[in-house]
Amino acid sequence: MFTSFSTALSALKAQATAIDVVGNNLANLNTTGFKGSVVSFHDLVSQSLGSGEAQVGFGVGRPATLRHFTQGSIQVTSGPLDAAIQGDGFFLVQAPNGAIQYTRGGNLQVDKDGQLMTTTGESVQGWTRTNGVLDTNLAVGTIVLPVGTVEAPVKTKSFSFDINLNAAAAVGTPDGTFSTSVTIFDSLGTSHVVEARFTKNATAGQWDYSINIPDADVQNPPATALTGSITFDANGKLLTPAATDPAPQLQITGLKDGAADMNVDWSLFNGTTPRMSQYAQASATSAVGQDGKPSAQLTSIALGKEGAVVAQYSNGQQLVVGQLAMALVRNPESLISVGNNSYQLSFRTAVPAVGLPNTGGRGSAIGGALESSNVDIAQEFTNLIVLQRGFEANSKIITAVDELSQVTINLKK
Question: Above 80 in pLDDT, residue 1?
Answer without folding.
Answer: no
